[in-house]
Structures are given as C-alpha cells and as structure tokens.
Amino acid sequence: MDNRKRQQIQALHYRTGEPILIDIQRGVLAAITSVQLDEEAKRALPIVAPGLVDLQINGFAGIDFNDIPFTEASISKVIELLWREGVTSFCPTIITNSAEAIEQAVATIDRVCQGDPLAAQCIVGIHLEGPFISPEDGAKGAHDKAYIRPPDWELFCRWQAASGQRIRILTLSPEWPCSAEFISRCTASGVMVSIGHTAATTEQIQLAVESGARMSTHLGNGTHLTLPRHPNYMWEQLAQDQLASCLIADGFHLPDQVLKVVMKVKGPKAILVSDAVAICGLPAGTYTTHVGGEVVLTPEGRLHLAQNEQLLAGSAQLQRWGIEHLTSRGLATLADAWEMASTRPAACMDFPIKEGVEAHAPADLVLFRREAHRIIVEMTYKAGECVYQRD
Ligand SMILES: [Zn+2]
After folding, report:
1. Which of 50, 85, 113, 119 is the most buried (most CB within 10 A)?
2. Residues 222 and 114 reside in one and the same domain
3. What is the pLDDT of residue 292?
4. Mind listing the pLDDT tens digit for each residue in 66-119?
5. Which chain positions lie within coiled-coil regions (predicted)?
6. What percent of the chain clears pLDDT 90, i.e. is strictly above it?
7. Cα separation of 210 and 18, whole Å?
C-alpha cells in the first residue's frame, strides 16, 4: 500500500466523453492531459468520474450503525464494500437514541478512524440525525419518540468530544424554542446544520437559515402525510436559496415530479444521498430489524414493513441506483446526476474532493462502464490507491 508511487489511468472523462490520461502522484491527480484516439479505441475505455460522496448511510450489507454496540471491524467491512459501489467518502449516520448509545456509536467510529488512516479519509464525518428533531408523528419518521429531545449544547459537546470532533452534520428540527442559538453555536464550531424530520413553521425555518442552517435532510421524506397548502415547511425550504436539498432518488421515496422540481429549484444545491439502511446490499427477502421489526425487500429493490407494504422501511439502494434512476427517467444527464452524488455534496461540505476530476484534486476516482442506464463499477481509487478492481 504505497500511494506515493506514480500511476497512470487512461479513460473517458465523465463529462466530455473524451479520452484523458490521468497521472496520479502522492494521492492527488498530478496532471490530466487529453489523448487522441480513434473511435474503436475510445469504445474500449471505461468512463472516469469523481468518487461518490454519500452524506447519509445508516448501514450496509447487514451491518447497522444504529444497532449499538457495533464493532470496529464491521465499519471497516462497510468501507470496503462501499468501494465496490464507487463510494469513496461517506458519513456514517447515527439516528435518535439514548445519550449513552449515541456516545458509544460515535466513539466506535472515532476508534476506527484513529487506527486506520485510509478509513479516516473515507469517513469524512459523522452525520448525527436527531435526537433534536420533531416528536410529531409523520415528521419523526421511524425515530424513537422516547429519545427525541430539545437541542442541548452541553450534550452535543459531549458527543462531539467522544467522536474526536468528527460530527460534521447535525440534522435537527428548528421547531424547538432554543434552536436559533444552538444552530449558531453548531455552525460556529464547523458543524453543518441540516433541517429534517421537522414540523417547523416558515418563520422558524427562516430563523434557522439566518442562524446558519444550510441543508435539508432528505427533503420530502420524514414529513407529515398532509400539509397545509401554503405556507408550509416544504415551500419554505425550497424557497430558501441558501439551503441545499438532500434527495433520496431510489424511485420509491419521491415521485419523479418532486425530484424534477427540487432539482430545477436548487440547481447545484440538489444533492443525492442514499439514506441506505443495513438491509441495503442484501438479497430480496424478509428480514427482522431492530427499528422496523419485520421488513420485506422486494426483487424490485423496495423496502417496506411486512405488516403494511405502503410504509417504506428505509432505503435499500445506494447512490449508484439513484444516478441510474435519474438518467433512465430523463431527469438528469449522467454527468449531472453523477455530480449530484459526488462533487456537489462535497462542495456543500467544503470537502477537498469537490474539485472532481481536475489537476491537484484528491485522487478519489471511479472507473465504470454503462450497460444502457446501468453503471458497472470496474475500479475504485481512494487517495491514489486502487482499493477495488472488478474480477
Ligand atoms: Zn431520516
């Protein structure tokens, strides 16, 4: 594992479709030059794009970051499995739980990062989703009401210390009276405050944005089944230009027209997240989970409660599926959809990988082929190291 050595990759640039030669040195893209090739030679090349950046992953392949305690080895396993899917940066997401359980979870993630520099580069931050969210049914989604509470700065600092200062995103609802001051303190400390699982009024959302909130967590999900026509918190978050919108584009969580409208309104601030749960990456079937009880993953990739198939039990698809969904429905070009899942979330979080496939950017790359709208990952590079190669 020597990422100082020089490597060269020839592939088609994901945006232009033109062949390029990428020179990787010391973990960064040292130089990118264009190459002249005939059509046949071009067709033989894979496409190269920035590594995927997923700001919300609850678990994968049977490993659940919210089934506490989990082991350090299980996190390392997820990192490796995500490379196969083109994900080179992600935020393990810890949801509403007891103060002790949250502390234990973030401390476990910190230990992995401390012990493995490559893991620390893949885990770009912890996303704490809750417990300072709305207790209302609908808004709270699957979060356990028993642990939902108003924002508490001392408590947050305790978790932040246990995490080794790795909590980078906090999803909260600004409906709590003390929210504005809390959001200001989080923002000043470098934590991205994201609005989600909320029943906030438009005024409370406006105040949250004035206080520093800059993102909406899975906009359109974790919401009430019915809303007053207007004003309401959906319109307000759409209208707030400073708020990026995270979207679950698995084809089940949001109808295409919602995806289309949010993407039009938000432009480069529309972001794809997976919000994948532990069942993601497992074969179709019936499973028992600690949050939702018995759940069913259908052959079509939809995850619902066994008791009521109308109710989704989380997402069972990663960003790659979301990209495929957007392109197959004609909602985005491949390049735009890919950026929604890579450079755009990185830009919102100011991660260095926001530069994408440009000289001097980190060498986080995915090489892939397309079969119709399907994306077949061939190789993944993290910080200049080839971490996955398809058989
Ligand atoms: Zn959620």
Report:
1. 50
2. yes
3. 65
4. 998 999 999 999 999 999 999 999 999 999 999 999 999 999 999 999 999 999
5. none
6. 93
7. 43
* Tokens of residue 182, six digits: 């809390």
Structural domain total, the chain = 2
Among 12, 93, 106, CA closest to 378: 12
Where residue 4 falls among pLDDT bands split at 50, 70, 90?
Answer: low
Ligand 1 centroid, distance to 262 Cα (angstroms): 18
Q: Write down the pLDDT at residue 189.
A: 98
Q: Is 290's pLDDT higher than 80?
A: no
Q: Mark the binding-site residues for Zn(2+), compressed into ranges.
A: 129, 197, 218
Q: Which of 121, 116, 93 is nearest to 106 (CA)?
A: 93
- Half-sphere exposure (CA, 13 Å, Cβ side) for 323? 28
- Active site residues per annotation: 275
Cα separation of 21 and 8, whole Å?
7
Expressed in angstroms and rounded, the spacing between residue 200 Cα and the centre of ligand 1 is 16
Ligand 1 geometric centre to CA of 129 (Å)? 7
**DSSP-assigned letter for residue 51:** P
Q: Are residues 303 and 365 in the same domain?
A: no
CATH number at residue 88: 3.20.20.140
Between CA 48 and CA 13 the distance in angstroms is 5
Mean pLDDT of the region 140-160: 96
Token output for 74: 């299980």
Between β-strands 374-382 and 385-389, what pairing exists: parallel, antiparallel or unpaired? antiparallel
Give me 247's structure tokens.
């979207």
Report how far ligand 1's centroid is from the alpha carbon of 132 (Å): 12
Residue 2 lies in a domain: no
The rounded mean pLDDT for the chain is: 96
Q: Is residue 310 part of a domain?
A: yes
Of the pLDDT bands very low, low, confident and very high (cuts 50, 70, 90), residue 330 is: very high
* 233-240, Cβ contacts within 8 angstroms, sequence gap of 24 or more: 233/198, 233/199, 233/200, 233/201, 233/202, 233/205, 235/202, 236/202, 236/205, 236/206, 237/195, 237/205, 238/262, 238/265, 238/266, 240/205, 240/206, 240/209
Beta bridge partners of 64: 59
Q: Which domain holds residue 301?
A: 51-354
